[in-house]
């Protein structure tokens, strides 16, 4: 995604757009993609209606000392997919933050694994708390890791960030 801009979303967009509108703006190139995706070589494929899908290909840059992909790579992809699934359902002026993240690693990931796909799905969208689950799979659909998140929902303030 070299042609995509990276950065933070302008404050006025955060306050005026719904979660779905934010993700549509990122997809259309009108809003920047998060820099975390550039750092970890993954990007959103689809976000909408309580579902989010990210794809990435881990490289030598993501290895732990044992030569497998660091668990933080899978955890970050799943956290992104699950939180974005929740965020896609929020109205304007609402934000969220992860308050609990549980990841279960099923298979090791290596640079030879190839592309991986994280899918997050909303389980419960409440007024203050929302939950989602997620799956990380390889190109053949083999489960690599799965997770569950709980996010706190809150009003975004109109003042400075």
Automatic annotation (TrEMBL):
Pfam families found in the cross-reference section: 4HBT (PF03061)
What name does this protein carry?
Uncharacterized protein (TIGR00369 family)
Coiled coil ranges: none
The GO terms describing molecular function are: 1,4-dihydroxy-2-naphthoyl-CoA thioesterase activity
Cellular compartments per GO CC: cytosol
Q: For the Thioesterase domain, which residue ranges apply?
A: 67-144
**Keywords recorded for this protein, A-Z:** Hydrolase
NCBIfam families in the record, alphabetically?
Answer: unchar_dom_1
**Gene3D superfamilies attached to this UniProt entry:** Hotdog Thioesterase
Superkingdom, natural source: Bacteria
